[in-house]
Specification:
Layout lengths: L9 H8 L11 E4 L8 E5 L4 E6 L12 H11 L9 E5 L9 E5 L16 H19 L17 H16 L5 H12 L9 E3 L8 E3 L6 E4 L6 E3 L1 H9 L18 H4 L4 H12 L7 H25 L7 H21 L2
Antiparallel strand pairs: 1-2, 2-3, 3-5, 4-5, 6-9, 7-8
Helix pairs in contact: 3-8, 4-9, 5-9, 5-10, 6-9, 9-10
Length: 343
Amino acid sequence: MNATVHSVDETKLSEYLEPHVPGFQGPVKSTKFKTGQSNPTFLLETASKKFVLRKKPPGKLLPSAHAVDREYKVLKALGNTDVPVPEVFHLCGDETIIGSIFYIMEYVDGRIFWDPTLPEVNNQERQEIYEASNKVLASLHQIDAEKAGLSDFGKPGSYFERQVHRWIKQYRAAETTHYDEVESLIQWLVDNMPKDDGMVSIVHGDYRLYNMIFDHKQTQLLAVLDWELSTLGHPYADLAYQCMTWHIPQIGITPGLFGLDVKSLGIPSEKEYIRSYCKKMKIDTIQNWSFYLAFGFFRLVGIAQGVYKRSLQGNASADNAKELGAAVPILGHIGLQIINNGE
């Protein structure tokens, strides 16, 4: 990755932020977080305080991707709800400051768990962490979007139909290699679209453990991060996307729980996790679960392929972008397995 692609002019940034962000006083030191495939994210350190800057990447971008202004809007709206999010301070639409639009939010100090087996903690803590994740997801899906000021945050209804076609378009725009299993997955999703059941909620779009910050010592969920893909949509899309973890092996750059004895680790099974969510949502059962899971895997295929394409163009945000390209056919294969097994 070209280091100059993802750097900022600290002097110019500091001069801009002082009158726009409460408590900000330069000079500032910026350090890019190594993780994060979509929008480059920087830790900003001043003499007295830390902030986080998240910006749109430079270069040619896929349509409708990297909408940091949408991230800012949803974070601001959720600030007064039961969903823990970082406080946002300012959205800058002036691309001349650092080369692209960006927003500033608080720095939340805590733990991020990259491995869903949670090797850093004990069994009781693992159970509590998964339960905290489940509780916040249900809380998000129960928020009244209109009261939160997000009634215009997406088109209500026909969510999966629109999303399937959107991600097909995104995938085609980023496609570099033909994969038969990905094509079969796409065709199955188009042919097996469930009827719209009218359920609409605010959805996160990438609800995974590594997008959450937990307290250093306790299992409290302090903040949910990375709202780039959030919209008004179907709550089961979020649930299924998180439940993909139980279908992904403990290998590669996105390790999962497939094939592991999760009970011995204190981690709920996929069915237990779904049951816990349904109880909070007052839902008896979920129909068409295979479709929701398969769609989740296709979305991940589209995301991975998009990151890989950006890496070929020199503007991917993280250094392991090319590894995601190799994951595309594997994710497509898992999606097809779910369909064939009727899970």
